[in-house]
Amino acid sequence: MTFSMISHLSCPKCKETYSPKTIQQLCVCGSPLLVDYDLEAVKKSLTKEDLQDRDQSLWRYHELLPVQDENDIVSFEEGMTPLLPMPALGKVFDIPHLYIKDEGMVPTGSFKARGASVGISKAKELGVQHLAMPTNGNAGAAWSLYAAKAGITAHIVMPEDAPEITRKEVSISGAHLYLVNGLISDAGKIVADVVKQQGFYDASTLKEPYRIEGKKTMGYEIAEQSQWELPDVILYPTGGGVGLIGIYKVLRELQQLGWIEGQRLPRLVAVQSEGCAPIVKAFEEGKMESDFWENSQTHAFGINVPKAIGDFLVLDAIYQTEGCAIAVSEDDIRSTQKDVARIEGQFVCPEGASTFAAARYLRETNWIKADERVICLNTGQGIKYPDAFDVHAPVLEPNERISFSSNI
Amino acid sequence: MTFSMISHLSCPKCKETYSPKTIQQLCVCGSPLLVDYDLEAVKKSLTKEDLQDRDQSLWRYHELLPVQDENDIVSFEEGMTPLLPMPALGKVFDIPHLYIKDEGMVPTGSFKARGASVGISKAKELGVQHLAMPTNGNAGAAWSLYAAKAGITAHIVMPEDAPEITRKEVSISGAHLYLVNGLISDAGKIVADVVKQQGFYDASTLKEPYRIEGKKTMGYEIAEQSQWELPDVILYPTGGGVGLIGIYKVLRELQQLGWIEGQRLPRLVAVQSEGCAPIVKAFEEGKMESDFWENSQTHAFGINVPKAIGDFLVLDAIYQTEGCAIAVSEDDIRSTQKDVARIEGQFVCPEGASTFAAARYLRETNWIKADERVICLNTGQGIKYPDAFDVHAPVLEPNERISFSSNI
User: For helices B211-225 and B242-257, what crossing angle results, to 10°?
Assistant: First the structure.
């Protein structure tokens, strides 16, 4: 059986098609390209049950991934992250069937590892030797480390105020790191110039078609871990929106595979910060594309994306699934991050916290019903953002003792 | 079938036995207690093959763990971490069969999660409401978050210069955090006073008998992931040494279960820093216990333990398996951390890096043979130690461009 059932690349805008055997970036029309598979062939040769005994990584779905030679895979066993119930927080929120999909449990501590594993593997297969990308931190970290494993040289440009820890990850991998006194959109312009100047592979979000294939595996895992009974709502912290686009792509693939027959699709929710909410604004205005968000700012750095190249795909996914887009405040993100840790013992990242804040709000307004199964996507570990809050603790001398005023 | 096959607790020094149904700390003789199981009963009711279809967490070994009621389990799906080949680094080291057991892939980003999951679960089962513990950072972080999930209040004392990120984890969980201007041994004295004063559960290393049961599961996983063919050498970064004691305990359990018949046990290697090497000194002198290491210092903070309460168990495990203890320099730890990242794309913690530095040295001296299968234990993520090295990167203005002097 063929390892990958990839057939070709296609443009969601102008419908032009491309070969997956050579390097492709954007469509000639400027749109991102998507990967198509021979789903009829997959349907004939693969069943849901076949998956059960496979490796505990996203590569268990290899027929539905773009890498054609198994030997090209660059992997640290990313994927099959926990899908855990949160009964205590669910009680507080009045959402008894509240779940976390915990993407902190992957190499490099963020869900960017999924895109990096598939993106770098395919780049290796295509013979890429140098790549360049702008990043808000975590993607650059993941791609640098996977590139090191693959023997590819990475050139990474990130905002100076991106989480400092991600600089360390890029640097130690041996990648070339540049900081910019600006936003990821400024980093993007620098990368575009490098790509033009040097002919490097452009690994910017959605400018290569394979990162999304890695991210989409979150959708397959949610379905498989739910015994192929889809949840009612999935909340996703939305910057570039690749994960949400990917999950929607999987829902469509699942329909074509006949693996979710008769089921209603989960309502997809794009969660943003009030400091950077271009998708929310477009959604509220019923538009198909977003406008550039001026002076964007949020401490949930991964969703500080003022204009996403795949915005039209994100909005389409929301509309098609009868989902919504919602912005939460910086204060809500901070307080919810604490609530999740204190009540459920999970130190989620600010982006992840935003989805819980949104779930609470959407339940309060009854957009989410009490009996619905709701999955919040935590896209990374809280420890990657040590500056998100301050700690005040007493400092003792070695001979000092703690005094308790009364028994506790 | 019984969920746990625990029978009793016993003292490795004076052989006194205790009940696992009530709270136990040290033996009356001052030694740590170990957990015994009815291994004959396990042997009759569980086969290696039975394990294959179980959950991907350390709780797959529940018969060999101390929690008696499944409902008491506090888990975030810790365990079954990747065991990955490192062919490129293995080539550099002339160890073709070099592997990493990557304990960065657990909740809270360090192997301390194993001890916390089992330790907190059992504490919950025993009705503990308050616990206190000294920590070099990662254990406190893990125990605080698992305690939050269990509804147990944690009181944590850590050195002021322990990794700052672990303070954040303790704090956000709602635990009571105290810093001490000293070492973990000073923190230990403060905790001992709190325990005496308030009657809190003492969760210090080996002062409760269950943390080791969580840590030991690394041994079961190494065996299972190696298809029950044990490796030749396992290198372990040794502070308190609980993991090494636990792995040796598993090797003995595996023998009694008849699951590794006729196999030679892996040689266990305790790796320390030259700045804190009490076990190495004791080993070189052929002693059964270590002396307090004065003015200990290492940037691999987790192994900065000047005198481990379980030192005699660590040394016994080394002697019984014909292993060794070895100290590596701070510079070697730093340069090896970079080598692992650049060559294999893995950002290991300094403690983990020390095991690779030791493996290289032991191969050079031919203590490790070229055809041996060697497993290095990486106990946590590099990102938890952002201060381990500095990053120098150029800072660009938004309108600046990168200039390449010539094509690469």
Answer: 60
pLDDT on residue B385: 87
Residue B98 has pLDDT above 70, yes or no: yes
Choose among A105, A174, A178: nearest Cβ to B342.
A174
Give the pLDDT score at A406.
56
Mutation to test the B interface, candidates A347, A395, A399, most B Cβ within 10 Å? A347
What is the number of other CB atoms lying within 10 angstroms of the CB of residue A28?
9
Low-confidence winner among A331-335, A388-392, B18-22, B249-253 (lowest mean pLDDT)? A388-392
How many other C-beta atoms can be found within 10 angstroms of the C-beta atom of residue A392?
A: 7
- Measured CA to CA, the distance from residue B206 to residue B220 in angstroms comes to 20
Contact criterion met (CB < 8 Å) for A180 and B396: yes
Which chain A residues are within 8 Å of B82, Cβ to Cβ?
76-77
Q: What is the pLDDT of residue A387?
A: 85
A173·B389 Cβ contact <8 A: no
Locate B327 and state its tokens.
């100290």
CB pairs under 8 A between A and B: 228
Q: What was the pLDDT predicted at A385?
A: 87
Chain B residues in contact with A398 by the CB 8 A cut-off are 180-183, 186, 189
Q: Which amino acid type is present at position B61? A: Y
- By CA distance, what is B336's nearest residue in A? A172
Chain B interface, mutation test: which of A121, A161, A172, A184, most B Cβ atoms within 10 Å?
A172
Do the beta carbons of residue A83 and residue A99 sit within 8 Å?
A: yes
Taken in order of first residue, the domains within chain B and their CATH numbers are: 83-109+212-388 (3.40.50.1100)
Interchain pair A408, B130: CB under 8 A: yes
Q: Could you tell me which chain B residue has the CA closest to the CA of A193? A: B401
Q: What does the pLDDT average to over B140-164?
A: 96
Nearest to B146 among A105, A172, A345 (CB): A345
Q: What's the pLDDT at A405?
A: 73
Structure tokens at A182: 């600006």
| pLDDT confidence band for A36 (50 / 70 / 90) | very high
Chain A residues inside the 8 Å CB shell of B345: 74, 76, 145-150, 173
Amino acid sitting at position A44: K
The Cα B120–Cα B134 span in angstroms is 15
- As for the ipTM of the complex, it is 0.94
pLDDT in tens, A173-185: 999 999 999 989 9
Q: Do B169 and A395 touch (CB under 8 A)?
A: no
pLDDT single digits (tens) B224-269: 999 999 999 999 999 999 999 999 999 999 999 999 999 999 999 9
Which residue from A258, A206, A259, A207 is spatially nearest to A229, judged by alpha carbons? A259
Among candidates B153, B396, B408 on the partner chain, residue whose Cβ is nearest the Cβ of A198? B408
Facing residue for A149 by CB, picked from B153, B171, B345: B345
**Helix, strand, coil in percent for chain B, rounding step 5:** 40, 15, 40
On chain A, the residues whose CB falls within 8 A of the CB of B396 are 157, 178-181, 190
| DSSP string over B226-237 | TTT---SEEEEE
Which tens digit of pLDDT belongs to each residue from B174-202?
999 999 999 899 999 999 999 999 999 99
- Shortest CA distance from A199: residue in chain B: B407
Check B104 against A105: CB less than 8 A apart: no
CA dihedral B381, B385, B386, B390 (to 10 degrees): -110
Residues 6+ apart with CB under 8 A from A405: none
DSSP letters spanning A249-300? HHHHHHHHHTTTTTPPPPEEEEEEETTB-HHHHHHHTT-SSPPP-TT---SS
